[in-house]
Structure formats: structure tokens, C-alpha cells
Design goal:
The complex is a heterodimer of chains A (471) and B (449).
Chain A lengths: L1 H12 L3 H37 L2 E4 L4 E2 L1 H9 L4 E17 L2 E10 L1 H7 L23 H10 L13 E9 H4 L11 H5 L5 E11 L10 E16 L4 H6 E5 H8 L6 E2 L1 E6 L5 H19 L4 H5 L2 E4 H4 L1 H22 L1 H16 L1 H9 L4 H32 L1 H12 L6 H4 L10 H18 L1 H8 L3 H4 L4
Parallel strand pairs in A: 4-8, 5-7
Antiparallel strand pairs in A: 1-10, 1-11, 2-9, 3-4, 3-6, 3-10, 5-8, 6-7
Chain B lengths: L1 H12 L2 H38 L2 E5 L5 E2 L1 H10 L3 E14 L8 E8 L1 H7 L2 H4 L21 E5 H4 L18 E6 L17 E11 L4 H4 L2 E5 H7 L8 E2 L1 E6 L5 H18 L12 E5 H4 L1 H39 L1 H9 L4 H45 L20 H27 L3 H4 L6
Parallel strand pairs in B: 4-8, 5-7
Antiparallel strand pairs in B: 1-10, 1-11, 2-9, 3-4, 3-6, 3-10, 5-8, 6-7
Classes of the chains: A alpha+beta (471), B alpha+beta (449).
């Protein structure tokens, strides 16, 4: 009771204590914002990987045929909810007059992709439609236009050798870059391309089959196809929005490998709710090995060098790097913030020296040195708790409103701090990470208590006889 | 004189001031190390961008490019401010190394190696042909083949220390490159036929600009070949950009003004030509403006870091404030004596401001000294950490960073020291003001003695 009384009194009477509270609050909020920002970024990065490729990815060292059999076998596993095959390539896309972009082409089975990934939610037009996503536009006016474009007679841009494809999706930043000042996309302008034909040049490496070429010699064969833009992809992840186009996998197979049976490059898998990841990975490996034995002639190379990883594991190298940068930044700011110990120490020393008579009276009433020391250590702890509390509130407010603050800075000063082209995401992650808040708060309280330690010892060693002497 | 004596005495005799000095030193140490590394990275990045771009770029953002550049180039070359000029073709293409089952989209840059090396730092980025730039596109294994220079990350692998596995001479690898030739109206030039042009180029050298996005995505081709491949040859030739280097004594703004003036003359001369509408898309920018998106991002990060240190520095201001507050409360009699012999309040403020200056200077010196010693060893410390614990500040397989920058910039150092001293002066302000307002009659009362 006495301690509480004294703490409250010191808080009211010694306003300099508020400086230490402010310092603790400032340090806590800064560390909290940094930790939340970084961990939010990592979480968003890992989540986009799951949204984009599913929970687990099976990637053999080379393309393989008969993949529908593998998909069926995988879906029979209890741990697997759905699986899809993908095929990818690189290409150059002609979007209109003077507008050519290098793009990454992803061949997908749309029905399966909608089950395995969060693909539908990233389609600008079709995400709100109750129907399954389709490579054909859902707009009846555009459908008519598309069907006209998909007849061999109506080759808008292509010559006879060009493949006609029903439709495809294009990343929003492939069509239109975000505004340089606001970093916002002009969705209406981007949607104008929906229903229009574009031309893609891609190609594949094929083995020379003519008698003049030595066996095993390969050659790059260029392929061109025209497709109609059925929808725009907007994931909020710049690398995907900027570089990707999506086509039906069958169409991409026919374009890249017309003489071969359908091949796939990667299998994306969604696990059942509550499935154990490690056990699922083992089961998937078993299915893969069985499939290679049955359908691919037991090729050991395919069996041994297959990667079966979770989407999160695939990003681990980059995520590890971000974590390292976060650790370094927290360490640097943490070391400077450690000056709080010095600050609390100075302030408490001052309180102790000016309140020696109070301390002497307490001691003369029979209080031992230990409890006297605890008055100040406890007060230090209280300062830490109050400062941390304010810091946490401040940190929460800043973190949760970080996008608004960034926008405000941009409006006031014209300085755009966050750009999706630099930091990958369209929005700054704004979720408070409570896992990091707890150790930060604990360290702040400990720092304040440690700072109070030396003054507490000085107070404990006060001799009441000397202090309370009349002369 | 008494101010100096008293300030020195307080600094040496009052141990509590050591706390303030230590807090300032710690803050200065951290800021010197971090800001030196960041300033080094930003400065290095800017220099590499400058080397890559030259001083000024006259360019069209459209891949269609712009025509009638020959007269403008002649005018530039005749200008007193221009040292070198290089015409460049830029487009996108599809690259597929022979013998490998991979294809990838790349950026094509068509240039004349000798002209481009005079206008930019291109020649210094080459490996095999650095001393024979004219032969940059001549493969050493067969001079008759058309050559190409690859961005280093397209050609070589990097180890965990960021070192490339350099080849003694380029291997014979063909790269079929396909791209869309465009008409002056931006339509596909090959409509009705093959649409895309394809030609195989052979690896003659690689270019290491030190810019990750450049080294990972650009393939350099001979100017005429790239012009033909992109459909920019023919009767009215087109290009995408002109890179300009100004003479050493010419200021960037002066040079750019001259380039703009010459451009507007050329533009008005060609106003009645059939493709004059393409000239409206052309801009004349200095290298900083041309690469602003990349440079601004790094500068902003440096600024955010500075702001964060500014916030943390507030704690240092608080410490100085508390230390001075304590000191003054203990030295009220000294102040009373000084005031009683006629020293003004302003002199008292000066005395403590001088003391704050000393604290700031002492702390800054300690911090700078520590920071300097740490920076001298920062790379060897990192190497030791990597050897023993596998820790690197930046994973060199992911980031195009060599050694950690450790060269202290006098400008950065001056700013940090001045800010540290300013923090001390701000911290000392309120206590000094209170000290100046102390009345000797009150502080020197018998019951206070």
C-alpha cells in the first residue's frame, strides 16, 4: 500500500518521470511498428504463394505426360482436396499499337485452378460472378465479339500459321502500369482491353527429327497465337500482376508441343482441411513414385529429383532474408533504445537524491533495505508498464493506419513512400503482430526496472541517522 | 574564460555527465555505421545508374521509337557541350539458349559498342572485350558469327560470396532471339507473314553493370541487327533512345538545356515529315530523372531510416535534459554566486550551452571513432560471421551487392555530428533557461547553505 502511495505521489509530483514514460513509449511503438511491418510483409508474401500455387507443389526435373492419371490418383488421397497441372513458358505479348511486353505464360486448367488456388478472387470481372470462372468473357456483348474473333476467318492480327486461342487472362500491370504518383491502378482503363485480341509469341525447344540433323540436336521453334483477353488479373502482388498471362493448359500444350501428347510441368495441390502437411508430403511422394513406375517407365531421375514442397517452403530463402533484415533493424533500433536504461537511471537517481528524507523516515519506521529498494525497482517497472502500454496503443494506431498515414504524407508532401513496383504489394501490410509485441513489452519493462536498480541500491543504503540529523 | 573553465570542470568532475556522453556516443556510433552503409549503397547504386545511362537521355517511351534522329545526332556531335552520343534500340524479345529447354523474355538493347562506351560506362562492364570494345559483338571462337553480349546474370552463376564463376573465354552458345517488328504506326510489321523476327546470335561477352535488373534481363545486340530485328530499319530508320555524355566541365543542367534546345530545333525542322507525330513522344531527361523510379526508392529508404533514427534520437535528447536538470539542481549555489557577482542570465545560458556543446562533441568523437573502427573491420567481421555461423548481412546469391560499403562520407559525418550537438543543445535548453532564472537571493539564503 505504501509502495503504491509513493509511486502515485512520485508520478504526480515528479513530472520528469513522464520523460522516461515517453521514451519507453516511443521505443516500444517504433519497435512494434517495425516488427509488425516486416512480419506482415512476410505473412502476405507467404499467403500470396499459397493463393497462387496452392498448399503443396510437386515439381519434377522435366515435363511429363499422362498427368491426368496422376491428378486422379492424388485426389484419391484423403489429405488432398484438389490438384491441378500447370505448364509455363515465356513470351512476348503484342497488346496494341507500339505496346509490346515480355510476359510469363502460365497454362492452367481453370476449373481445377479455382479449387486449388484463390484464382477466381483475383479476376476483376468474374470474381463477383456466381458462375465458375471461364476463359470466355461473361459479358454477353463481349462473348459475341469474342466468338467472332475466334473463327479462322476472322484472324485480326495473325496470319494462317498463327494459332487461335479462345481466351486468356492478362495481369493488370501488363496492360497498364499503376499511376506514378498515387500508385493506384486505373481499373476502368485496364478493363477496356477485355474482349480485344492480342498476339503472343512464344516457343519451345524441340528435338530435330530430320535425317540431316545429328541425333539429340535441339532447335528453338517459335510459335505465335492470338487470343482474346477474357479478364484482367489483379492479385495485388506486383510480380504476378506485371509479368503473368494465363491461358488454357490444353491450348498452351498444343502451341508449344504440337507433336507430343499433353505434358505438364508442375502439379499444384490443395490439402484437405486439417491435413498433416508432412504426412501429406510423404503420401504425395508415394503416389508420384508409383505413377513414375507405372506410367513413366520407372525413370529414376524423375523419382529422385522431384521437389515436393509446401508453398511456404518454396519462399523460404527470400523470407529468411527478410527475417534477417528485420532482426538487424530491430537490433539496431533496440541498441539505441537501450539508452532508456540510462534515462530511467538518471531520473530515478535524481528522485532518490531529492527524496532522501522520505526514504530515511521510511527506514526509521523499521522498513528494511530490501523493501526500500523494491519501492524504486517496482516504480521503474511501473514506468515500463505505463510507457509500454502507451507505446502499444501508439504502435497499434500507427500500424493499423499505416496506409492512411502513407497516403497523407503523399498528399501533403508529394512523396510516395510505398510503391508496389518496389515493395511487391499494392498495400502496406497493416496487421499488428502480437507475437512480437510481448517480447518487446517485456524488454521495455525489464529495461526500465534495470535502470531503476542503481538508484534503488543507493536508496536502500541510505542511513536514516545521518539524513535526519538536525544539523 | 570562466565559462570554459566551469564547463570543463562539470564535464570532468560530474560523473553523471558521462551518461550523457555515452548515450550520445552510442547513438552517433549506430547512426554513423548504418548511414555510412546506406549512403554507400545508395551512392554506389546512383553511380552505377549514371554509368549505365550516361549524363542525358533523349528517349521515347513507346517501343515504336522515333525517326529523323540522324540530324539531331549530328547537331549534338557538333555542340560544344557534348562529348559523346550513342543511338540505342530498345525492345523486348524471347531468348532461347541452344541446347537448353528454356526460353525467357528479355530486354533487347541494340547499340554500337564503341559509341556507347564513349557515352556511358558500357565498355567497363565487359569482361572479355574490355580492352577491345570494338570487338564486343565478335565471338572469339568464330569472328564471322553475329555476336551478343549477355547481362552477367543471364550468362553466369553466382556463389554464396557473390562471386561469379568467370569463364576464361566465351563458350560457343547460340541464342535465337525473337521479337515483334513494329511499323511506325505501332502495328505488327509482319502481319500476314511470320509476325515475329527471329535471328540467332552467339555469346561473345557478358556485361556486369552491377544493377540487378539490368544484368538479369538485358541482352545487348549490334545496333544495325537490332534495328532490323525490331522493324526499325528500312527507308526511315527509327531508334528508341539517344544516350549523351557531356564534356567534363559542363554542368548537367546546362548540358540538358542545350540537348533540349537542339531537340526542339530538330523537331520544328521535321514538323512536316510523314512520321513527325512520333517526335511528340520524345523526352529529354538527365540520368537522375530517367532512372528516378529506381533511385527514388533507395533514397526513400535512406530517408525513412533517418527518420527512424530521429525518433530514437529523442531519447538521447531526454537523457541530456535529465542530466543537465540534475546538474543544475546540484549547482544552484554556483549559479547563485555567479549571478551575485553580476553574471547575466544570458551568460548562464551560454555557460550551459557550452557545456552541452562539449558533451555533444565528446559523445560524437567517441561515437565517430567507434563507428570508424567498426566500419574498417565490417567486411572482415561479416566474413568471420559467415565462416563460423553462416551469417551474412545480405545473401550474396540474392542481392547484387559486393563488399559492405565502409567509406565514411565527410558530408554524412558532418550532418550526424551537427545533429548530435543540436540534440545536446536542445536537451540542455530547458534546464539552462531554468538556471538563468534562478535568483541569487533565494539560492544563497542561509537555510539553503
Amino acid at each position: 500500500m505504501l509502495k503504491l502511495f509513493l509511486w502515485l505521489r512520485y508520478l504526480r509530483k515528479r513530472r520528469i518521470v513522464f520523460l522516461s514514460i515517453a521514451a519507453v513509449a516511443l521505443s516500444v511503438s517504433l519497435l512494434m511498428v517495425i516488427a509488425s511491418g516486416f512480419t506482415g510483409f512476410i505473412k502476405a508474401y507467404e499467403q500470396i504463394a499459397v493463393d497462387f500455387v496452392g498448399d503443396i507443389v510437386l515439381q519434377p526435373p522435366r515435363k511429363f505426360p499422362n498427368y491426368p492419371v496422376l491428378l486422379d490418383r492424388l485426389e484419391q488421397l484423403g489429405a488432398v482436396e484438389a490438384a491441378e497441372a500447370t505448364l509455363s513458358g515465356q513470351g512476348v505479348l503484342y497488346l496494341g499499337k507500339g505496346n509490346v511486353r515480355a510476359v510469363h505464360i502460365q497454362g492452367i486448367d481453370l476449373a481445377r485452378a479455382a479449387k486449388v488456388t484463390a484464382f477466381k478472387s483475383s479476376l476483376l470481372k468474374q470474381k463477383s460472378s456466381p458462375n465458375d470462372p471461364s476463359f470466355k468473357s461473361q459479358d454477353s456483348r463481349l462473348q459475341t465479339q469474342e466468338s467472332r474473333l475466334q473463327t479462322p476467318e476472322s484472324r485480326v492480327l495473325c496470319p494462317e500459321s498463327c494459332v487461335l486461342c479462345p481466351g486468356g487472362f492478362v495481369g493488370i500491370a501488363v496492360v497498364r502500369e499503376p499511376d506514378e504518383k498515387t500508385d493506384e491502378y486505373d481499373f476502368e482503363a485496364a478493363e477496356e482491353i477485355i474482349g480485344k485480341p492480342v498476339v503472343l509469341t512464344t516457343g519451345s525447344v524441340i528435338e530435330q527429327k530430320d535425317s540431316a540433323s545429328p541425333p539429340g540436336e535441339t532447335q528453338f521453334r517459335r510459335r505465335t497465337l492470338q487470343f482474346t483477353v477474357a479478364d484482367i488479373i489483379f492479385t495485388g502482388f506486383y510480380q504476378v500482376d506485371k509479368n503473368y498471362i494465363f491461358l488454357p493448359i490444353e491450348q498452351l500444350q498444343k502451341t508449344l508441343y504440337p507433336e507430343q501428347e499433353p505434358v505438364a510441368e508442375m502439379i499444384q495441390i490443395k490439402l484437405s482441411l486439417g491435413a498433416d502437411v508432412e504426412s501429406a508430403q510423404a503420401q504425395i511422394r508415394g503416389v508420384w513414385e508409383g505413377f513414375v513406375d507405372d506410367r513413366l517407365g520407372g525413370d529414376r531421375y524423375l523419382k529422385e529429383f522431384v521437389d515436393i514442397e509446401t508453398a511456404v517452403e518454396m519462399q523460404s530463402q527470400y523470407v529468411e532474408e527478410i527475417r534477417k533484415q528485420m532482426g538487424l533493424l530491430l537490433l539496431i533500433i533496440g541498441v539505441v533504445s537501450a539508452s532508456v536504461v540510462v534515462l530511467v537511471s538518471c531520473i530515478f537517481y535524481m528522485i532518490v537524491t531529492t527524496k532522501r528524507k522520505d526514504i530515511a523516515i521510511i527506514k526509521s519506521c523499521g522498513t528494511a533495505s530490501g523493501p526500500v529498494a523494491w519501492i524504486f525497482v517496482g516504480f521503474g517497472g511501473c514506468v515500463g508498464i505505463i510507457g509500454s502500454g502507451i507505446g502499444v496503443v501508439l504502435g497499434c494506431v500507427i500500424t493499423e493506419n499505416v496506409n492512411g498515414i502513407e497516403r497523407w504524407i503523399s498528399v501533403v508532401s508529394g512523396l510516395k513512400l510505398w510503391k508496389s513496383s518496389v515493395y511487391m504489394f499494392s498495400r502496406i501490410p497493416n496487421e499488428v503482430n502480437w507475437f512480437w509485441v510481448l517480447p518487446i513489452v517485456a524488454c521495455a519493462i525489464a529495461a526500465a526496472a534495470i535502470g531503476a536498480l542503481i538508484p534503488a541500491i543507493v536508496a536502500a543504503r541510505t542511513n536514516p541517522v545521518e539524513i535526519l540529523r538536525y544539523e | 574564460m570562466y565559462k570554459l573553465v566551469l564547463a570543463t570542470r562539470y564535464l570532468l568532475k560530474r560523473r553523471i555527465t558521462y551518461f550523457a556522453v555515452l548515450a550520445v556516443a552510442l547513438c552517433v556510433f549506430i547512426v554513423v555505421v548504418v548511414m555510412t552503409v546506406m549512403a554507400g549503397l545508395v551512392g554506389d547504386f546512383k553511380q552505377k545508374n549514371h554509368d549505365f545511362t550516361g549524363d542525358c537521355v533523349v528517349a521515347s517511351e513507346s517501343l515504336v521509337g522515333f525517326p529523323y534522329y540522324e540530324d539531331y545526332v549530328k547537331k549534338l556531335e557538333a555542340s560544344k557541350v557534348v562529348e559523346a552520343v550513342s543511338e540505342v534500340i530498345r525492345s523486348y524479345g524471347l531468348l532461347s539458349p541452344q541446347g537448353k529447354d528454356v526460353t525467357r523474355g528479355v530486354e533487347i538493347m541494340g547499340l554500337d559498342p564503341a559509341r556507347h562506351s564513349r557515352a556511358t560506362g558500357f565498355g567497363n562492364t565487359l569482361h572479355h572485350r574490355r580492352n577491345d570494345i570494338l570487338k564486343a559483338f565478335v565471338p572469339s571462337y568464330d569472328p564471322n558469327l553475329p555476336g551478343c553480349v549477355l547481362g552477367i546474370d543471364l550468362a553466369l552463376e553466382r556463389d554464396s560470396n557473390g562471386r561469379y564463376a568467370y569463364d576464361s573465354s566465351p563458350s560457343r552458345i547460340g541464342f535465337p532471339i525473337s521479337c515483334f517488328p513494329l511499323t511506325a504506326r505501332g502495328a505488327l510489321a509482319g502481319a500476314g507473314t511470320a509476325l515475329a523476327n527471329t535471328k540467332t546470335f552467339y555469346y561473345s561477352d557478358h556485361s556486369h553493370s552491377g544493377l540487378a535488373r539490368v544484368d538479369d534481363s538485358i541482352i545487348y545486340l549490334p545496333f544495325a541487327e537490332a534495328q532490323a530485328l525490331c522493324g526499325m530499319g528500312g527507308e526511315t530508320k527509327r531508334i528508341n533512345a539517344i544516350h549523351i555524355k557531356f564534356k567534363p566541365d559542363v554542368k548537367l543542367t546546362t548540358g540538358c538545356e542545350e540537348a533540349r534546345r537542339l531537340w526542339s530545333i530538330c523537331k520544328s525542322e521535321k514538323a512536316n515529315e510523314s512520321q513527325a507525330y512520333l517526335l511528340d513522344t520524345v523526352t529529354v531527361q538527365d540520368w537522375k530523372l530517367y532512372r528516378r523510379e529506381l533511385i527514388a526508392a533507395m533514397e526513400k529508404e535512406q530517408m525513412i531510416m533517418g527518420v527512424m533514427f530521429g525518433f530514437v534520437g529523442i531519447v538521447t535528447v531526454f537523457i541530456v535534459l535529465v542530466v543537465f536538470y540534475m546538474l543544475i539542481s546540484h549547482k544552484s549555489k554556483d549559479i547563485g554566486v555567479l549571478r551575485s557577482i553580476g553574471v547575466s542570465g544570458f551568460d548562464i545560458i551560454e555557460l550551459f550551452a557550452g557545456f552541452a556543446l562539449m558533451v555533444g562533441l565528446a559523445g560524437s568523437c567517441l561515437g565517430v571513432l567507434g563507428g570508424w573502427q567498426f566500419l574498417l573491420r565490417i567486411n572482415s567481421i561479416e566474413r568471420w560471421l559467415f565462416q563460423h555461423f553462416g551469417f551474412q548481412v545480405w545473401d550474396r546469391t540474392m542481392f547484387a551487392i559486393g563488399d559492405i560499403p565502409s567509406e565514411i562520407s565527410p558530408r554524412v559525418l558532418t550532418v550526424i555530428v551537427l545533429l548530435a550537438i543540436a540534440a545536446c543543445l536542445i536537451g540542455a535548453l530547458v534546464p539552462s533557461w531554468q538556471a538563468a532564472r534562478l535568483k541569487p537571493v533565494e539560492t544563497l539564503q542561509v537555510n539553503q547553505l
